[in-house]
Amino acid sequence: MLPEYSTHEMMITTAARMLRDNEVVFVGIGLPNLAVNLARRTHCPNLVLIYESGAVGARPDRLPRSIGDPALVTGALGVCSMPEVFQYYLQRGLIDVGFLGGAQIDRFGNLNTTVIGEYARPRTRLPGAGGASEIAALARRVLIVMTHQRRSFVERVDFVTSPGFLTGGEARAKLQVPGGGPEAVITDLGVLRFAADTHEMELASLHPGVTLKQARENTGWPLRIAAEFSQTEPPSAEELRVLREVQSGTPIPS
Amino acid sequence: MQQALSRHVHDGDSVVMEGFTHLIPFAAGHELIRQRRQQLTLIRLTPDLIFDQMIAAGCARKLIFSWAGNPGVGSLHGFRRAVEQGIPAPLELEEYSHFGLALRLQAGAAGVPFLPTRNFAGTDLPRVNPSIRRVTCPHTGEELWSVPALTPDVAILHAQRADEEGNTQVWGLVGVLKEAAFASRRLIVVVEEVVSEEVIRRDPNRTLIPGFRVDAVVHEPFGAHPSFVQGYYDRDNAFYDRWDEISCEADGLRRYLDKWVYDLPNRHAYIEKMRPDVERLRARSAICEPVNYGY
Fold this sequence. Notes:
Chain A is an alpha/beta fold. Helix content of chain A is 24%, strand content 22%. Chain A has seven helices and 14 strands. In chain A, strands 2-1-5-10-11-12-13-14 form an eight-stranded mixed β-sheet, sandwiched between helices. Chain A has a two-stranded antiparallel ribbon with strand order 3-4. Chain B has twelve helices and 14 strands. In chain B, the strands form three sheets. In chain B, strands 1, 2, 3, 6, 10, 11, 12, 13 and 14 form a nine-stranded mixed β-sheet that branches. Chain B has a three-stranded antiparallel β-sheet with strand order 7-9-8. A two-stranded antiparallel ribbon of chain B has the order 4-5. The radius of gyration of chain B is 19 Å and the shape is globular. The model of chain B has no long low-confidence stretch (mean pLDDT 97).
């Protein structure tokens, strides 16, 4: 019998599996935070967690509530200043993976966390860039986690806060943006990846029980299907057990 | 606190109040609200609840920032009302990414007119902020982006401890505290404990700011609540959650300011009013090994 799981658990598990052991990961709050902590306790025991607040090699014994949680400091390998995090770690090219999300994403993986509507007269003022624009520009690979809705998967983002592949094709390379750009978008419906030549987002897998029609209806452009297309592997009983322990705030053994 | 702020912070000043999640100078912010300071240019990477309150109280004319949200909770409603509806007054915005604004302070601290970055290519930030400009490296010919030095009139920073001269020691997350301290013309340090010079001298590597940079030292225990001070008290996450409901309507935020800022004479009264929370948040002990500074 298959274990029962929530959509969030599906997304977190999928994101966690995309991490490789020994990678250096720039962690954000929310689902990515759960994903790295799940990975750390399953297939990536040597994952190095770096938070933009300056905690390096953090080993939080409770689920951090913010990227500046005091639990990220207690027992960390190091603490550095923010100019150091951004220059010596991120800009220097030492960050393997960055996690991002946003209010809007377009078909080339550009993200908006700044405004809905016009910048000078926004309908909705969002928080802004934070560390996202530099993670998008400078991390070797970027994993994006978002809810799949038509209002957020749009033909054109209202504001490019964090660059993906810009206008597609070689646009990102031409501007000499150092990082590798977005690798995958993990949603509540499936996983999307980027075509090697056009860099357009394509549907790579659907989660069990999700239909292609649903994915298409919730995407604001004609969604292509990747050449390699499958069903996402659901969370295993072991992954669910560990994830639920992480979420319940059970102290995480090192 | 009253004296230090009335002496060093004037209407119309640019004021950086740093501390990334950690060490946010709430007591100083509340005192500026009580003193009805106006037309300030407020500078923080993350405006957080403190600037949400100061904006709603009418202290701000302009905000220089990089991420304006309630971490892990949602929006800063006071900030959004000012930007979206001009309540209580329109707010001029100058926004960066964290890296961009951290670099501005670093340039200010280092005494150079700008610093370069490999960030910003392909983003719309330079389009809405003309201070983010292209620069060509004179050595390699590479095209980079740059931000100008930021030199605020005054910095207000919270720390674990200082001596009476202002030699200030910090541990835990340091964010851009040092950059803010060295970039600013005047500097007020608010501390949990005032210690003797001997305590400072026994652990010189922990000193972030030398006393000769400091214009005023204020002793204000629990002065960073609801943010946290490593080794002293935890972040009051329950309050950050509650702030969403308190602040989502302008009236609610106003009532909070009346009850917790305007109607109280000082921080001491605030602490007395939330005595149970003070106990709830007290930090547990995690002591490191002493190091040998001998030779």
